[in-house]
Amino acid sequence: MSSQYELTINIKRAVGSVKLKKKAPRAISEIKKAVNRLTHCKNIRIDGSLNQFIWDKGIRTPPKCVRIRVEHRVEKDRSYANVFYVPVIDFSGLKTVKKEIK
Question: What stretches pass through the bilayer (predicted)?
């Protein structure tokens, strides 16, 4: 059984008061925290395209917002979540969407 979510994360709010050299790593950890709150899963795998998007401008200036797609899979004895980057031109009006996949 698996679920698929699409949501927007405001990174600016999470890394606003962090030192310059820790902003991009904190952005990655905030994405993992948001996915953990959503799926209650400890094993979270960040896709290379999302990692590239966060680190594109360097360690000091991560993007303000990011739209992600989370694929949460539950198997017999383990569960994990894959997180992918979704390119978006405008963030206004976007809401969290959930799809059930069998």
Answer: none
